[in-house]
């Protein structure tokens, strides 16, 4: 598996985990968990975009 594909997959996984944490934090009124989820979601988006860039450069 190419590193660009790995980055894209890992990015999507982190986005999903982050969204779950964010929603759980909102439901439990736990601001720390909600913030942690938002950060993980953003990190996932960055990682996915990095994979997109790697793929575009590799063409």
UniProtKB/TrEMBL annotation:
The CsbD-like domain is annotated at 7-57
Pfam families per UniProt: CsbD
The UniProt regions of compositional bias labelled Basic and acidic residues, in chain numbering, are: 1-10, 19-40
What protein am I looking at?
CsbD-like stress response domain-containing protein
Domain of life, per UniProt, equals Bacteria
The organism is Desulfonema limicola
Question: What lineage does the source organism belong to?
Answer: Bacteria, Pseudomonadati, Thermodesulfobacteriota, Desulfobacteria, Desulfobacterales
Q: Which family does it belong to?
A: Belongs to the UPF0337 (CsbD) family.
Give the InterPro entries listed for this entry.
CsbD (IPR008462), YjbJ_sf (IPR036629)
